[in-house]
Amino acid sequence: MPRYVALLRGINVGTAKHVPMADLKLACENLGGRCVTTVLRSGSVVFDADSAPDAPALEAEVERLTSVDARAMILAAHEFAEITSANPLVDVATSGSKLFTTFLSEPVDEVDQLVQPDAADLAPEVLRVGRRAVYQWVPGGSLQTKVPKGFWAQFSGIRTARNANTVERILTLLSEESENPRSGNDAPGPLTGTVERHRVH
Length: 201
Hints:
Blueprint: E1 3-8, H1 21-30, E2 34-39, E3 44-48, H2 55-66, E4 72-76, H3 77-85, E5 99-104, H4 119-122, E6 126-129, E7 133-137, H5 149-152, E8 159-163, H6 164-174
Antiparallel strand pairs: 1-3, 1-4, 2-3, 5-7, 5-8, 6-7
Helix pairs in contact: 1-2
């Protein structure tokens, strides 16, 4: 059975948009998801489904259960793996909590046409733009990023970021065989699949 990753934007950041992971799990199950597992409080969930889920339907079900309005992005397992394995900053980063992948629901057709911050102005921060994601190494922490807000206004659709530690947990879950049942939250099992994984050293 195909496996998917749902990424909700902007929930459980500080006290904003609190969504219990049990409710997020239930929302996926109510829409036909199986072997549903949430990842920490990150608004990330891995599940199996017979067909590609509908992101607006998940958004509506989460709002019905929690009264929280949050945008959602759903990626097939292979899409998530391809995007994260393309991160060019893995060898630069020294902490998984400060290496970020911002997933883009709308691919960037012409990366060279984007107005990007000057590398010297960002240093020691590093930013790279791919077709499906923006990759950032932010040694001072995400709250101290030098990337101007106007940079993000160039992207259409939904964008939502996960740090490398969360990405690694998701990849672990995706690497399990679909038939291998999971129970509870944040409960990765043995690595038996073929999803490409990487670690920050």
